[in-house]
Amino acid sequence: MKSKMLWTLAIALIISVSLIAFTPIYGKKPTVGLTEEELAFAEAVGVGEYAYEIDKIYAHEYGEFEWPEGSGLEAWRPAGSDADHAYAEYLEAEMKAIGLKDVTKEPFPVHAYHYGGASVQVTSPYHEDEWLACGYSGLPGTPPEGIEAEIVYVGLGTKYDYMDKDVEGKLVLVDVSEEDMFWLQYPHYEAELHGAIGMVVTWVEYGLKEDSVVSHDSECRRTIPTVCISHKNADYLKSLIASEGSVKVKIWCDAEVDLDGWSYNVYGYIPGTTYPDELIVFGDHYDKHWYGASDDGAGVARLLGMAKAFVDSGYQPSRTLVFFANGAEEYGWSDTEFAWCIGAWSAIAKQHPEWAGKTLAYFNCEGGGTINATSVRASGLPETQNFRSRLLPLFDEWFTNNAPWSAYYYPSSARTSRFPSTWNDQFSFGSAGVSPMTVDSSRSNYAGYDYHTAKDDMYGISAESLAMSIIANGIAAIELDRSVLILYSFDKRADDMEQSMEKELLTEAGISYGQIISKIDRFGRVAADVTDLIESTKDPENEQCVNDLLLQTADVLLSELTTVACYTYAYYPHQHYQDDSWYLREGIWALEEGNIDAALMWLSWTYNMWTGSLVSRETYQAMYIDRWDPDRDDLNWATGRLARVMDIYDEYESLVQKRNDGITDYSDEIALLWAKYDTVVDNFKASLDDMMDTLASATDLLTQVKALLK
What we know:
By secondary structure, the protein is α/β, with parallel strands linked by helices. The chain folds into four domains: 1-29; 36-112 and 260-482, Aminopeptidase (3-Layer(aba) Sandwich), CATH 3.40.630.10; 114-259, Glucose Oxidase, domain 1, CATH 3.50.30; 490-709, no CATH class. It has 22 helices and 17 strands. It has helices at residues 2-22, 36-45, 49-60, 82-98, 178-181, 185-193, 231-244, 293-312, 342-351, 385-401, 426-431, 463-482, 490-500, 503-508, 514-536, 543-561, 575-592, 596-604, 609-612, 617-626, 649-661, 667-709; strands spanning 65-66, 74-75, 101-124, 131-133, 147-153, 171-176, 198-203, 226-228, 248-270, 275-285, 319-326, 359-364, 375-380, 413-416, 436-442, 563-565, 569-571. Strands 3, 4, 5, 6, 7, 8, 9, 10, 11, 12, 13, 14 and 15 form a 13-stranded mixed β-sheet that branches. The protein has a two-stranded antiparallel ribbon with strand order 1-2. α10 (385-401) crosses α12 (463-482).
């Protein structure tokens, strides 16, 4: 008994001494899973000191105008502006100073937006102080003296809100709602149609702090000027109109659109040593609304912080690392439905189309510096699901064992999406065939910052959070770079594709789904075999050929299966028609049963009719039919990817009128809708045929991979 106690004490002493001997300074603990290169990278990042300074420069220097005036705080950096060009020069110089190679600043065309501020002032029945306002990228400003006129409140700005209202030659006050009217262009067109000479707006779902003013791209025609005011000031103006009847205001906006402008994409490289022609790309945008400390000062800080840590740690990548800062994410083109993400699209579609089929992943660095972040989230597409899941223990190992994060860190997570959102730069890369990922610091029960307002300042950013994002991205990139075979999981894409096939809806549309399901199943089986072989093959003989085929597979799947549909969301090619056929069919059946209310409900769910039912025919034609034309070749990143809109506006309006008039004969509308339904089903079938061709090509490529790895 005594002997056992002595041995126990001896062992405990040895363990204690060992822990002391091998515990690094600064509260760091020994690691097991991380490589020496990853540890060196993390050490080089520190706690984000460099990145935080980069974010401050982003937020408070290189601005288009100074706000508040005389403060020295420079705000706004629209695409193509002088500030945009000056900041691109700064990025070029900083990338060179970091030690990146072959740094270049490459121009691309934009409709440049030069902006110098905006205001709104009540001038009658009282003369009040000026209110802070903002303009909208792509819309013209006012004359230098502003525009003074009576203002009329028109609610959401629908066609119904103009009934019994005279706005000819007047200003209108509008509550813009993304949920009801989607975006600014719809109420803007309605206001123009009804003779308004300008708009004052407040956004229902944005600018959540009562005194904040939100700015976005406009997607509007370059006609009547529009400025935004805070919820607080909008509420006061509504109450004044209600109590006084006639109210005059003066709007002023210093803005100009130059159709012959340009912005820059700035590139820097760390050349690869083993596979120099294969790329890993890191990117973010540098244009901004207001100070933009989170959107996207944090992204620039992460991008440059990552580049500096790779250089400072002496990392020698196997693949070429590309660090890429792009302009024109927030706005880059006027009078179009597809006004944003022009810089990233220009990079992959115009400046470097050769990257498709050579790039293992595009890491989108936007955001990620939120104060009080507690964890890391790795987001991406099904193809990278297995790879991202493998990263989580590595993230957790570093942050749970190292101060300051160890005091509050919560386990990391992975999130998989069907396609990248069209609302950021990932879409341009994803639709070009490059698999995108986002690895960033996240915060539990985070309510969000005041997006696109002057409240997006450095108070919401922390160096620790920036460092968390940078370190996690670095670990992910090194793991991907050092993998001999690219760790794609195409079987997850097959699973996701099969889930998107609503078999009941296919059957009701009269479509036999056996062939498409068979194609998906065959692709999935081959993909699963390839995933197993990639995981089990330790020393492949043909890794270059295998990786080329894997990259080609990703290129084929993503570039050919990504469609823009339903309010600019990304879908598989069949999904738009699958949904529209369902809604149309149910609506027609309801009409045949005489249930007009149910019919209108179903028909309103077809793409375009939810908002379309709230606007005039002219607005509907311009916004949904003329702009949303798949045969146009001037739609920027949406070119060649649009699902076809079925125009049922006239039938819908006729049914509304018949309901109002008590008419119950719907035979004419039923006949017209069945004809249009047949067209939707034809498009549905054609999309499935195209998908089967894509699956056949992808299956052939993976079959070649399987043969090489066996």
